[in-house]
Amino acid sequence: MEHFAKDIQLITPLRLRELSQKSDREGWIKTGSHILAIALNTTFLAIFWGHWLAIFFFLAQGILLACLYAGIHEISHRTVIKTKWLNDFFGRLFSFTIFVCRSLDRSEHMEHHRYTQDLEKDAELIGSKPLTLVSYLLYALGPTYWLIRIRELIFLTLGINIWPYLTEKQYKAAQREVRQNMAGYLVIGIISVWLQTLAALQFWIL
């Protein structure tokens, strides 16, 4: 590892600044293209629902929705779009869509950068256990991931704080965001029942 590190040709601060330029135009293109891909795939999924071809659009829908987390990560650094509030807007939209608390995720990620690979302080590693093939597959296929997400939503909604690295301000922000999201999910559920539609389940949850 030391030999590898010595051979790395680090870029200069000037070059780093050049590569880090933010752009509303590029941000809109990248963000908009992903939203458009989801919209188009949802349309085709609806058209082919009940046909065997729907399987491919169903799988694609899962991939497109899951990949929204990559957007959340970049948006947390506020590097996607030059206009700050647009980063925050799409961050909230994407996190709502995939049941992630953006405020909590951003605070965790900042602690991760501050204490990278420190098992006692890196917020993304605290409490984690060494991966085994079974634990990796359970996470990759969904069961473990969803348990974490659901516990996160429930604990924040009920005011149970299990995140020692959060300041009071950060925790309150996360709690407020999750409660707003839960209200949104409830509204979607009520509308679905009222309209007697399974669209939210078919094209989103499942």
In short:
The chain has 206 residues and is mainly alpha-helical. It is built from 11 helices and no strands.
Commentary on this structure:
With 206 residues, the chain is mainly alpha-helical. The chain is built from eleven helices and no strands. Helix 8 packs across helix 9. The longest helix has 28 residues. It is globular.
Q: Biggest sheet: strands, sense, closure? A: none
Given helix and strand content, the structural type is: mainly alpha
Number of strands: 0
Q: Which whole number gives the mean pLDDT?
A: 88
Reading the helices and strands in chain order gives HHHHHHHHHHH
**Bulk shape:** globular
Low-confidence stretches: none
Number of helices: 11
Alpha-carbon distance between the termini? 43 Å
Helix % is over 70%
Q: What fraction strand?
A: under 5%
Report Rg: 20 Å
Summarize the helices and strands and which ones pair or pack:
Layout: H1 2-7, H2 13-19, H3 24-48, H4 54-66, H5 68-76, H6 84-97, H7 102-114, H8 133-141, H9 143-158, H10 168-195, H11 199-205
Index terms:
206 residues, mainly alpha, globular
